[in-house]
Every structure is written in C-alpha cells, then in structure tokens.
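Fold it.
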Amino acid sequence: MIILPAIDILGGKCVRLTQGDYTKEFTYSIYPEDTALELQDAGAHFLHVVDLDGAKVGHPMNIFTIKKILENVTIPIEVGGGIRSMEEIDMMLDLGVARVMVGTAAVENPNFVREAAAQFGDRVVVAIDARDGIVAVNGWSNSGEMAAEELAARIGDCGITMITYTDIARDGMLTGVNVEMVATIAEKSGLSVIASGGVNSLDNILKLKEKEHLGIVGAIIGKAIYEGVIDLKEAIEIAR
C-alpha cells in the first residue's frame, strides 16, 4: 500500500477545500510546485494532483501549474479534474503525467471510459467521489444519481483496473477515513482501490493496511499532512 499526498490546485494555488465546497478554501501555498518538491523530499513516492478549476468547468485549467510540478519533481504524479476526452488524456500523458483520473465522464459517458481503458490501459484511473454513498459529479456540485458500488461494478466491466474512492462528507474534515465503505467497494468490484477523504491518524492507515488483501492499494492524504496531524514519513513506513 502506498501513500499519495494530495495537491489540490485552485487558481494556480495549492489549497484545501472542506467537503468539496469551493467557498471553503484555505490556501497552503501560492507555489504548488514547491509544495510538490517538499513532499518528495519528505519521502513521497507518488503525488495526487487535482485541478479544482478544471473539475468545476469541465476541462483542464491549471496546465501551466501541472507542468511546473512535473519540472520540479522526479516522482510520478496522477492528475484529475475536468478530464473528459481522449485528447485531454493524451495531452496529460504527453506532459509526463503517470496516471490520469476521470470522474464525471465515468458516469455520463461509459463508452468513453471503455475506449480510454482500451487505449491507455492502467494509466487511466476512475475517481469515484460520493456523498452518502451516491456519486457526485462536476466538481462535486451535482449528484450523479448512481450508487458508488454500482459505478464501481460498471467501471470494472469497462476494463478499468483501479479507482480512487473519496467520501465527500469526510473530505477535509479530519474525521477518519471510511474504511468499511472502501473495503466493501474493493471486495465487491474486484478493483484496486485508493482511499481518500478524512484520513486523520496513523491508525487510519493501519486499518486500511489490514484490508489490503481486499484490494486497497493506497491512501490519499491532504489536510492531515498540511496541518501536521500526520507525519508523512511515518505514514509511508506504516503503509509499506
């Protein structure tokens, strides 16, 4: 299991939102590329980067900042946020991104996901973001009117092998990760799952690690690292 520190970009800055609410923004750095390097120096092996502007408008917006991150680090990064076409996936991969995440498109256009999986293989990951078990889309602003478990099953049928699962109600709240829901989705879908939302302690990571045999392969941590609640090096060691 690996730890993926999160870098959320809004207006070119590294921020954190609370429960995906764009009106509840806290800026941690005006230079996300410097933050990325600090996380790499702290031992991170993979970074999770989200273009929040892109997620909201439906196409990538912070390409310049993503390029700066790629120029500053040598570790792989995955990027999501508003990526809804084959051309946009191709563009991100050409930039040097290791994995591309699609979210809204997985709900609205399953054929696109099937085509992406066929062409790009495991370099495409689907982000399932759910509120009370129901998928949210368009920067978490709307309901996708589908249960997270149902979407996970459909994604597997499309050829995708890995998903990220975010419990929106816990995201940015430091209330603890929804281990049972993550484990249920991993077990029922047969997919590799990266957990996100609410990670607040090393014990959370231990509990996810205990379910690794079900297919939980990683955890995304944002606020807990930035607020000093979790030591990144310790988290990486436990996950390993």
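The chain has a mean pLDDT of 92.
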